[in-house]
Design the sequence.
């Protein structure tokens, strides 16, 4: 929490508007300890509602990939199932069956060679899904090394320097050495170039990102796989790929169906995605699948009682909501392939419009142009606007309600600052035209500055 917000949160009591309070109720409550007496639910609701209102409008948050819109039927289903625990398979067998249907639908969507041999599960967002994919990598590597009488104390995982922070967490939590392949102007994603310098007999796998968080660009999974094929031919090392498709795995099947990134690539062992991103569900829901159950080590699987039999489970959490899984199935039923195509296409059209308009402005140049997912980034042209930066653009847009982050690129490109827009369902073309107008107005204001704005603490945007 930013320092100034923390100070605000620790100041005096919570005051209650007299209009909300009922006769006899206290007009203030301690902010950081429980009060002695209860408060009427209507009053407590209004107090919490009003403070949460300060967060702003989630629909105008163009920093997040997480869905901020669902239709009324989905919301109703969400509320009806809010008391179900997804982990209790025996108590909620219908919900457990729906979860299995969902991941089997994804197995078909991602071209699993044998849907009956595939295996998967729902998770709390892609973070848990990535952890499970990484754990399966590590355990398989360990078991193979032990069987060969080799040490298992120095595993490493190879990935782009532009990975989402969850992969750094995975390596930290599970004692795996992260090996980051730096992105550059020439190689803006992990594309297989010089991969041989990063892998060895201790490499448990390579992560390919279908929709880099910094820019939205796809990493070419097939190209990475072919580079690993050459390495195997030369060295004998057979290194699997995990595709982090948090965003792109629910875009590519509908907008780029001929792109080979999924289980059509034999080296791809596992894939994760976020149901709560372009899966069109509110947070938090993720999915992880393995192309074949043999790729998920039996030592990671626990058996739970289910309809008089056993069901395998390998999630990290033992209590989590089932509502998002039911809403995911609702979306699968409601939209089908054509519906998902139309929804994702609409988001892509908005993103293309924004990229074209922003890219045409004299002060900016696009880093990428929303060719992959409905996400793109741009930077300030060198030498333009000596009195302002993209951070100033971000600050001015925040005053108008828009959250459009500015941040440095990773490692070798850390001197390059970009801004990024994420277009999701609910970001209409009308809203997009308003955003363009606000950006143009912001730039016109900043161009009039005769000296830089005073330095201020910048909120740091994390990936």
Sequence:
């Amino acid at each position: 929490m930013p320092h100034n917000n923390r100070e605000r949160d620790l100041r005096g009591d919570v005051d209650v508007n007299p209009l909300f309070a009922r006769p006899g109720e206290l007009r203030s409550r301690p902010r950081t300890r429980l009060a002695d007496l209860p408060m009427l639910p209507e009053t407590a609701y209004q107090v919490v509602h009003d403070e949460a209102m300060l967060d702003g409008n989630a629909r105008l948050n163009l920093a997040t990939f997480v869905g901020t819109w669902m239709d009324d039927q989905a919301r109703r289903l969400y509320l009806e199932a809010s008391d179900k625990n997804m982990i209790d398979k025996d108590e909620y067998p219908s919900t457990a069956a729906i979860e299995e249907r969902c991941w089997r639908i994804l197995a078909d969507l991602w071209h699993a060679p044998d849907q009956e041999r595939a295996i998967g599960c729902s998770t709390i967002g892609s973070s848990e899904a990535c952890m499970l994919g990484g754990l399966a990598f590590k355990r398989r590597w360990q078991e193979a090394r032990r069987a060969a009488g080799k040490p298992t104390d120095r595993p490493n995982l190879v990935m782009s320097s532009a990975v989402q922070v969850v992969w750094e967490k995975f390596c930290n939590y599970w004692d795996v050495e992260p090996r980051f392949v730096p992105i550059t102007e020439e190689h803006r994603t992990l594309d297989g170039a010089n991969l041989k310098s990063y892998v060895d007999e201790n490499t448990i796998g390579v992560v390919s990102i279908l929709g880099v968080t910094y820019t939205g660009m796809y990493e070419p999974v097939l190209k990475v796989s072919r580079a690993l094929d050459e390495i195997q031919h030369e060295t004998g090392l057979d290194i699997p790929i995990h595709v982090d498709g948090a965003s792109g795995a629910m875009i590519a099947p509908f907008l780029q169906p001929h792109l080979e990134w999924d289980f059509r690539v034999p080296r791809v062992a596992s894939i994760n995605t976020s149901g709560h991103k372009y899966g069109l569900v509110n947070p938090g829901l993720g999915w992880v699948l393995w192309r074949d159950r043999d790729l998920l080590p039996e030592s990671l699987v626990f058996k739970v009682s289910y309809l008089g039999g056993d069901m395998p489970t390998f999630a990290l959490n033992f209590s989590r909501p089932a509502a998002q899984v039911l809403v995911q199935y609702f979306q699968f039923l409601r939209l089908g392939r054509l519906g998902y195509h139309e929804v994702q296409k609409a988001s892509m059209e908005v993103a293309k419009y924004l990229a074209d308009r922003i890219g045409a402005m004299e002060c900016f140049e696009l880093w990428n142009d929303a060719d992959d997912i409905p996400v793109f980034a741009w930077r300030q042209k060198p030498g333009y606007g000596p009195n302002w930066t993209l951070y100033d653009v971000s600050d001015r847009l925040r005053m108008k309600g828009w959250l459009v982050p500015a941040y440095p690129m990773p490692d070798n490109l850390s001197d390059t600052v970009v801004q990024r827009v994420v277009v999701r369902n609910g970001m209409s073309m009308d809203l997009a035209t308003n955003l363009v107008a606000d950006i143009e107005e912001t730039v016109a204001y900043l161009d009039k500055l005769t000296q830089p704005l005073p330095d201020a603490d910048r909120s740091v945007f994390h990936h």
Notes: The radius of gyration is 24 Å. The chain has three domains: 3-47, 75-331, 338-447. The longest helix spans residues 323-359. Residues 62 and 404 are 5 Å apart (CA to CA).
